[in-house]
Amino acid sequence: MTTTYALLLRGINVGGRRKVPMAELRSVLEGLGHRDVRTYLQSGNAVFTTDADTDAPDTTDETLRQAIEAAIEKHFGFTVDCLVRDHAYLAAVVDDCPYPAEELQAKELHAFYLSETVDEERFAALDRDAYLPESFALGDRVLYLHAPTGLGTSKLAPVLARPSLLKGVTATARNWNTARKLVEMTRTEG
Fold first, then answer.
1. Where in the chain is the domain with CATH 3.30.70.1280?
2. Which residue, among 58, 36, 62, has the nearest Cα to 47 in the 3D structure?
3. 3-state DSSP call for residue 28?
4. How many CA atoms lie within 13 A of 117 on its CB side?
């Protein structure tokens, strides 16, 4: 069975550090045997197709992630945290958004993709009212952030990204246009 995945890289090509040219990233993924490799923007989004035998332990999101992270480190000489997600997951993130996504500008809504599910308890000490009109909601391995003035001026986003709140969790944010584009790019005709 063929499966198309999105690869989300965290913290690359920001401020001239940890440069990962997209052409090289495509070559790394092709070197691992993945096909139909495409990238989107320079911020670490790639889509690839692989033959997935659902009974084989080496084709899960986690094992794909580990192999890709190792190949990236070998090729570029530094570690990059990655997440690998299939179309069904990405579509569910968009479909399950608790905010009126169609009514908001893309700069207002962000999806923080997470390596694991986090619960509300992590955020219990956070005074949410102090950040209004900004707000967030949790979903399946995703944190939705509504920042009406955008991520760049958000006061809540840096608080949510603190290591103390997301200890042990890899998180990487995408604006809503990118979240929707990844759904489109991973859709396979059946």
1. 2-88
2. 36
3. helix
4. 5
User: Which of helix, strand or coil describes residue 186?
Assistant: helix
Q: Please write the tens of the pLDDT for every residue from 115-145.
A: 999 999 999 999 999 999 999 999 999 999 9
Structure tokens at 43: 């911020």
Q: How far apart are CA 190 and CA 10, in angstroms?
A: 31
What angle do the packed helices 176-186 and 87-95 form, to 10 degrees? 140
Q: Which CATH architecture has domain 2-88?
A: 2-Layer Sandwich (3.30)
| CATH class of the structural domain 91-186 | alpha beta
The residue-averaged pLDDT of 172-187 equals 95
- Residue 123 CA to residue 40 CA, distance in Å, equals 32
What CA–CA distance (Å, rounded) separates 90 from 64? Answer: 16
* Count of positions (residues) in the chain: 190
